[in-house]
Amino acid sequence: MLDYYDLGVDILSARGYDLLGDAIDFGRYVIPLVREEVAKRDRAKAARPRSKCAGSGSRIRPRRRWWRN
């Protein structure tokens, strides 16, 4: 799932045979792990010195997270 996140995917449809059970498992186990890893990556990125993009002088804009408004 983090590979899709790295590609910029905001919404991923993951379906199995037990829709309710799978939704509960995703909410309980998978989503917290993904959020934790994304937060870890964000902290590591924030700890690095910022550099400007070559040529334009503009900074890269952060991606908007679907679980944060």
What can you see in these coordinates?
It is a single chain. This protein has 69 residues and is mainly α. It has a domain at 2-47. 51% of the residues lie in helices and 0% in strands. The protein contains 2 helices and no strands. The chain has helices at 2-7, 19-47. The model has no long low-confidence stretch (mean pLDDT 80).
Given as residue ranges, the uncertain stretches (5+ residues, pLDDT < 50) are: none
Our Rg estimate from Cα atoms comes to 16 Å
The chain-level structural class is: mainly alpha
Q: Helical residue percent?
A: 40-55%
What is the 3D shape? elongated
Overall pLDDT score: 80
Beta fraction of the residues? under 5%
Distance between the first and last residues' Cα: 21 Å
Number of helices: 2
Largest sheet: none
Written as H for each helix and E for each strand, in order along the chain, the element string is HH
- The counted number of beta strands is 0
Strands, helices and their partners?
Layout: H1 2-7, H2 19-47
Distinctive features:
monooxygenase activity; 69 residues; mainly alpha; oxidoreductase; monooxygenase; Alkanesulfonate monooxygenase
In short:
The protein has 69 residues and is mainly alpha-helical. It has helices at 2-7, 19-47.
